[in-house]
Specification:
By secondary structure, the chain is mainly β. The protein contains one helix and eleven strands. The strands form two sheets. Strands 1-3-4-7-8-9-10-11 form an eight-stranded antiparallel barrel. Strand 10 and strand 11 form a beta hairpin. The radius of gyration is 23 Å and the shape is globular. The N terminus is likely disordered.
Length: 157
């Protein structure tokens, strides 16, 4: 009987410690995929002042734009703007880029081909359907800070 009790106690201890509910097991959705821009928020902060945010809602033409992140760390940005004729959309030249994504630091660096500067962004939200990227912009005035936060929806490939 003692052996049966010890066996039961050992199994109970094994079951109790074998499973964890740690958040470390939760996987972040991959950045790889095609993303549709929906809107952006431009936040301006001047030293000593309250931040001011402006919401920019995209037009139907702008929502036809796509940002594609490939598994090989390359990508393509295809922008679409409102045309000069009402109701028509104008596709802009594609912009190819390479990127580096640091999951731990949630930082994203994109280097566009043919352009000297790169884009440094912070991944605010990344799940199966939504991506929010916060890009800090340089200003001429060192007391003014500007951040442009893009909201994207994942598009099936």
């Amino acid at each position: 009987m003692k052996k049966l009790t010890l066996l039961f106690a050992g199994l109970s201890l094994f079951v109790a410690t074998g499973c964890t509910s740690s958040n470390d097991d939760v996987m972040e959705a991959p950045l790889v995929g095609v993303w549709q821009p929906l809107k952006e928020v431009v936040t301006t902060v001047e030293t000593g002042e309250d931040p001011v945010s402006d919401l920019i809602t995209y037009t139907e033409c702008q929502k036809e734009s796509r940002w594609k992140f490939n598994a090989d760390a390359s990508g393509k940005r295809s922008d679409v703007e409102d045309g000069t004729v009402a109701g028509q959309c104008d596709s802009q030249p594609d912009k190819n880029f390479t990127y580096t994504y640091d999951k731990g630091g949630k930082s994203l660096q994109m280097k566009y081909q043919g352009i000297v500067e790169s884009v440094n962004a912070k991944v605010v939200t990344l799940d199966a359907t939504t991506l929010n990227l916060a890009v800090r912009e340089e200003t001429q005035d060192p007391t003014v800070f500007k951040t442009r936060t893009y909201t994207f929806k994942r598009i099936p490939q």
